[in-house]
Design goal:
The protein is an alpha/beta fold. Helix content is about 35%, strand content about 20%. It has 5 helices and 5 strands, in the order E-E-H-E-H-E-E-H-H-H.
């Protein structure tokens, strides 16, 4: 099932693959996507794709794009250079001046990229107590899915966790966006 959800100034293209049952509805997912885009300083108006899939699809994508065998919980496919987004703690590159890196036709939105989440993996991680990035958090599948969607949006917006300073900044923003459900 594919549907478009508008949360001004964002358009979220939600694609729930056949057989996938999400613990969160489209409106709730769109609210988390919108909040993360806003917090990351994404250029607006813009669109983003959110695909809810299963482990099989994530395993294929993980092997093809990351060179890693087996499923993962979330993959992000940014289409905009990270320099388009505002500076933040831990980031070593500076944003480009003047907003989007190319002109769009009137009435068109910049497509920031796509996020693919394994709902199957989110449920398994939540139920087994391996959620919340630390791998030791037991909470609902809906909470794990909120975290993975937020995390994926931040990656599309140029956030990373390869460097310790960037990771600390990214985790702090996730805690701010997700509130008390994430412990420090």
């Amino acid at each position: 099932m594919t549907r478009t959800i508008y949360r001004s100034p964002w358009r979220i293209d939600l694609d729930v693959r056949d057989g996938v049952r999400s613990p969160l509805g489209g409106a709730a997912l769109a609210a988390h996507v919108s909040a993360a885009l806003e917090a990351a300083g994404a250029p607006a108006p813009a669109s983003i794709g959110l695909i809810l899939a299963d482990d099989e699809e994530l395993a294929r994508l993980n092997a093809k794009h990351m060179g890693v065998n087996g499923p993962t919980d979330v993959l992000s496919f940014p289409l905009v250079p990270r320099e388009v987004f505002p500076s933040r703690p831990g980031r070593t590159t500076t944003p480009s001046a003047g907003g989007p890196f190319f002109a769009l036709p009137p009435g068109r939105r910049l497509h920031l990229g796509d996020i693919v989440v394994s709902v199957e993996r989110a449920i398994e991680q939540a139920e087994s107590g391996r959620g919340g990035h630390t791998g030791d958090l037991r909470w609902s599948a809906a909470d794990e899915l909120r975290l993975l969607v937020t995390h994926g949006v931040l990656h599309v917006c140029g956030w990373d966790h390869a460097d310790p300073d960037e990771e600390a900044a990214m985790r702090a923003l996730e805690r701010r966006l997700l509130g008390p459900m994430l412990r420090p």
